[in-house]
Amino acid sequence: EAGVAQSPRYKIIEKRQSVAFWCNPISGHATLYWYQQILGQGPKLLIQFQNNGVVDDSQLPKDRFSAERLKGVDSTLKIQPAKLEDSAVYLCASSRQGLVETQYFGPGTRLLVL
Amino acid sequence: AQSVTQLGSHVSVSEGALVLLRCNYSSSVPPYLFWYVQYPNQGLQLLLKYTSAATLVKGINGFEAEFKKSETSFHLTKPSAHMSDAAEYFCAVRGYGGSQGNLIFGKGTKLSVKP
Which chain A residues are within 8 Å of B99, Cβ to Cβ? Predict the structure, then answer.
């Protein structure tokens, strides 16, 4: 079974530029998550999708971050404009529906904002 | 609201020694608890999870954790450390209510293994 795929793996941009990340979850997984992991901290949820609907985006900075999951499969996360404090690893995870289901994580995209 | 606290941001053990990584949780409802491992430049991999069945949970790579409700703890142990265990370990609790389904992570504990 293929794992969660993410691209790009690394990205360096200047502040005020825009950037987009892509995630392809494990086939058949209805739930998709985007987490932000700042250096030295645990991952923090940004947004959670159930199929193509948003379940929780309470911690997403909506003035600059946006995310979509068209057709309930792939997802993109966009930052526009980026700030220095957005430097982090952005992790995508997917799971089957259910509270005890395991979340499987992709390798992440490491973003550096200069 | 749910939360987890990991005691010790860095733990160092000798190869062959006991590994003990501490995690305490706060939850107003019966918790679902998880331990994940993260190797450098990689995503997180599930080690084990507690879902209200047996209180002693066995995971991959020889790790296990014991759920202790009276102590609100879910410490991770391994009897004998191996060099390949060097990584960062995260304890997490499943969110409820508006954040139902997502994971709330601790700050992580970096494990070093000395030869």
Answer: 45, 48, 56, 58
Residues in B touching A43 (Cβ below 8 Å): 44, 90, 103, 105
DSSP-derived secondary structure letter, B83: G
Cβ contact (<8 Å) for A99 and B99? no
CA A48 to chain centre: 9
Give every CB contact of residue B72 below 8 A, 6+ residues apart in sequence: B24, B25, B26, B27
Contact B98 A56 (CB under 8 A): yes
Task: Give the residue carrying structure tokens 């946006």.
Answer: A66
Q: CB burial class (10 A; 0-12, 13-18, 19+) of residue A6?
A: buried
CB contact under 8 A, A43 and B106: no
Task: Measure the CA angle with vertex B96, ends B95 and B101; round to 5°.
Answer: 60
Please state, in angstroms and rounded to a whole number, the distance separating the CA atoms of residues A19 and A77. 8
Distance from CA of A80 to the nearest CA of B (A): 25
Antiparallel, parallel or unpaired: β B10-14 and B109-114: parallel
Location of structure tokens 């939850």: B27
Note the pLDDT tens digit of each residue in B49-89. 998 778 999 999 999 999 999 999 999 999 999 999 999 99
Ordered mean pLDDT values, 10 residues apiece, chain A (114 residues): 92 97 95 94 93 90 94 94 97 86 93 98
